[in-house]
Amino acid sequence: MQTRHRRRRIPKPRRSTNAIERERFLRVRNLCKLNLNGTPKILAIDPDLHATGLAWYRAPDWHVAVAKVPKDLTGLYAAAAMGEAIRGVLMHDFSSFNDLIVVEGQQIYKGGDKATQNPTSIMHLSHAAGAAIGAAMGLNQHAQYVVPTPQTWKGSVPKDKHQARTFIKLGWDYEFRAGYCVPTDFRGRISERFKFNAGDWKHVGDAVGLAYWAAQEIKRIR
């Protein structure tokens, strides 16, 4: 009689912050303990070559914006122009005294759209992310910063589903669009630096998710 062996269930790897991110989250939390409020001021940026999303969060307050670059600019020139556009938004609308800056890093992985699999596209997007970090840190020299990849902060969850989950946690009603979500009762402030359209929530929604994720990590990390 053959003995049946039960197949062992292999647990999925848990997403976690790396050592650098952990150290910086701890620094932010420790610094906030010295403040009377104790609530971190977080600036999150979801980089793009032509429409970068920005979100400023200090619970329970939100302030969002989009930085835009003309479509006729591409590659390195679009990334450089985006750095200037982001700097303009930050100087016009956002406090220069933030505790933490979060900019989404880039990675190449299977699945998803063609842009996420194309090394050249990812390279250009990485330049935009670098320009975003430079613009933000230039105005926030004493802030901590982290650059989590999409896999770190939202896993493999599609953009629209993850945005929906974030908006639900924040108590916002929303509508699904083609691949992203649009809040229908956003209670924060929207910057007027660049014209803000419903379609801009594609990237601004991710910036909101980044800021919320970072706030939760600051609470969670040990």
What this model shows, in words?
The protein is α/β, with parallel strands linked by helices and 222 residues long. It has one domain: Ribonuclease H-like superfamily/Ribonuclease H (Nucleotidyltransferase, domain 5), CATH 3.30.420. The chain has helices at residues 19-34, 75-93, 119-139, 150-154, 159-170, 201-220; strands at 42-46, 51-58, 61-68, 100-103, 144-146, 174-176, 181-183, 189-190. Strand 6 and strand 7 (181-183) form a beta hairpin. It starts with 18 loop residues before the first helix and ends with a helix.
Short description:
With 222 residues, this protein is α/β, with parallel strands linked by helices. The protein has helices at residues 19-34, 75-93, 119-139, 150-154, 159-170, 201-220, and strands at residues 42-46, 51-58, 61-68, 100-103, 144-146, 174-176, 181-183, 189-190.
CATH architectural label = 2-Layer Sandwich
CATH homologous superfamily - what is it? Answer: Ribonuclease H-like superfamily/Ribonuclease H
Catalogue the unreliable spans. Answer: 1-14
Report the principal-axis shape.
globular
How many independent structural domains? 1
Question: What is the rounded distance between the termini?
Answer: 51 Å
Using brief descriptors, characterize the structure shown.
42% helix, alpha/beta, single chain, Nucleotidyltransferase, domain 5, 6 helices, 222 residues, two-stranded antiparallel ribbon, globular, six-stranded mixed beta sheet
